[in-house]
Amino acid sequence: MAPPADERPPLCVLLLPRELERFILRDQAEDLLRAPNVVAVDPPRVPYGAFGRMPEALADGLGARSARRLVRTLRRDRGEPRVVVIYHPLQYPLARGILAVCDGCELWYGRWDRYERAYDADPARRERLGLLHELAAARSSLTFAASGELARLEREAGRTAEVVPPAADLFPAPDPQGTVVALSLGHLGWRNDWALLHQVAERLGDRLVLLLVGAWHEEECAGDADFAACRAHPSLVWLGAQPDAAVSRLLLAADVGIVPFRQEPFNDAGLPTRILKYARLGRRTISPPLAGTRTWERAVTFADGPEAFAEALLAQAGRRAAPDLELREWALGQSARVLNGPLWTRLEELRVARDA
Known about the structure:
Blueprint lengths: L9 E6 L10 H7 L5 E4 L6 H6 L2 H22 L2 E7 L5 H10 L4 E6 L11 H17 L2 E4 L2 H9 L5 E2 L16 E6 L8 H11 L3 E6 L11 H8 L3 E5 L3 H9 L3 E3 L6 H4 L5 H6 L5 E3 L12 E3 L3 H10 L9 H8 L3 H4 L1 H9 L7
Helix pairs in contact: 3-4, 7-8, 7-12
């Protein structure tokens, strides 16, 4: 049973402008929610945006009715609101309704943007946002602003504001020291050894960033548990097909290229062009021991199995800041005119072409 109303603790009610998982200030909200008497309330059935589009009297009436329902639920289940926190002026009609039925309740106002200057608001809506902002800021017992400039604007308007910058606690922060950034270019389907990549990713964890550039083909890998694991793994970044100009820039941000092919006859005899592309930017290629790939062994480090592949990757960490310029010079020398040498020789013998 819930305790009697007079024994329930005072509450701080966070009126979230959107669900917590999608809230831009989720880090701050979750920190406050560690306190047992801080509660979060998701947006009402009528979106907050609607409050800015309907006539002011209608918005106030809707806000008051919604507030009474919410307060009844809070009093029944949790306690009496002592603080109500809003993060956008469009929330003010609901907050004002809560204040009207909760004696001694105070308003806190989070100012994390210049809402009244929003790009997607027409002049009439900007005017409405400006009015709601003034009302919320004037009523606020504690205004907290995301930047010093937002706080200065409040002071300029004759009010006070605390600077509370946004946090990024939930943003992953892998250790940048010793991290290897690898790039795989090309078709992402049945040719690839997804078991190898999955095991390498598991071994290296946060020490690996693998950029997968190319179209991926779910239909070719249906039922492949390793492919599914690679699709979900945080170390693998799936970028889709990209134009060559973009790929070359991505390679500049990578330490090494890879050829993650299965060791089987179809793959064993071929020579992936990506090896030469990597080398043109001074990046080596790591590949399983495929026979055809040895054609360009000058540019390749061969690694047999997940452990060796992982070790070879780590050995290249940081090379993006120190590319292999001799390898680059070799690769730039592998032009079509040079590589087509035997074909030109025969064309000249047949008098079909004359050497330029």
